[in-house]
Amino acid sequence: MEKNQEIKKVYMMVLTGGPCGGKTTGQARLSTFFENLGWKVFRVPEAASVLLSGGIKFSELTRKEALKFQENLVKTMLTLENTYYELAKGHIRKENARGCLIICDRGIMDAGAYISVDDWEKLLTANGWNTIEMRDNRYNQIIHMVSAANGAEDFYSVEGHSCRSEGVSLARDLDYKAAAAWVGHPYFDVIDNSTDFETKIKRMISSVCQKVGIDTGDRLLTTSKKLKFHVLGPLPPDSAFPAFQDFNVEHDYLLSTGSRVQARLRKRGQKGHWSYIHTIRRPHPNGQYVEVKTQMTARDYNNLLAQADASHFKIIKTRRCFLVNNQYFQLDIYKEPCHTRCLGLILLETYTSLEGKALEECLPKFLNIKKEVTGDPHYSMFNLSLREEWDSTQKFCRSLHGKKNINNVCSATNQDACNDHQGK
Prior knowledge:
The chain is an alpha/beta fold. The chain has helices at residues 2-5, 23-36, 47-52, 63-92, 117-126, 131-137, 168-180, 197-212, 298-304, 356-362, 381-384; strands at 10-17, 40-44, 100-105, 141-145, 188-191, 225-232, 244-254, 262-270, 273-283, 289-296, 315-324, 327-334, 346-352, 368-372.
């Protein structure tokens, strides 16, 4: 744990959700957890609650007034978040400082959940803003705490909340709107009510620790895992999907600095706006692997592309993100140029703790899902991107999970390929 505590970074995340979803409790527990690790924690207050508690009733505003209110709300949020971010940057420069976690009680995209898509786009354009910068590049992670009105109705209550009066039906609607506003963020986790509340909170904390790269040992054990499914084409028309966001995604594997270290780049964007991520994956003493993802500039991205591993194709995809049954899905549609093994390939991914019939029921019914391929090396991005044929290369990885006896499954000259190459 000491090694993890030495990470000096500013990690800004959004904690959002529907009414009575556990957001307030979750923020307190998350703050305490990271403070106990030696991190500095800043908590950005919910700007909407501050403004609404001053006598504003959104339902009484005209359309013009509502749009102006949302615009000023976003500007208020930007000012608050930027203030804490500057403080955080100053903090980590101190000699004995460790990381700094900024927890935003809702984020910019939440403001767009209560107006039409057209009005939101006009608001962004009028202020010179764009979705990639305001959603993807601004925050490291988004966590949506599903309302108790959706799956834990017996525990739904509005008592003790001065700004809340929603019934169960309205709460469900608001929960969906809040989640849908963030569809498309590359690190969006939906924490549902499939477990008891204590486990729900632990799942939330574990999700943050996993993204930050902190080993929590067995303190936050959960059953949630990433699942992957092979989908047969052709895809149904767009009208068959719920609200979705499409992105152009490119992955490049880089020459690594060690036999068991993996490095890759990801370029992701829409409408000419891009975000860039550099991922380093290395073994941890406990036998698992730790990923450290760093957001980077276009200039740094282009410089690192010179280190691309020539033994791999560039992976090009269209990534479609959407919500179904409180579950966040990413549908990767592989594009040319690519190896023939990737032609027409479509893969569906999600994180869930569901199993058996419950899992089957939550999967999108409008997709022709052939089979689950979680852990199947034939569907790992690392293997799919190899230029050589699988039956003639020594780089094919047959194990997708970090093992202590890693040499038992791969040659010593290619241990780096034995990692979980299912990168986002």
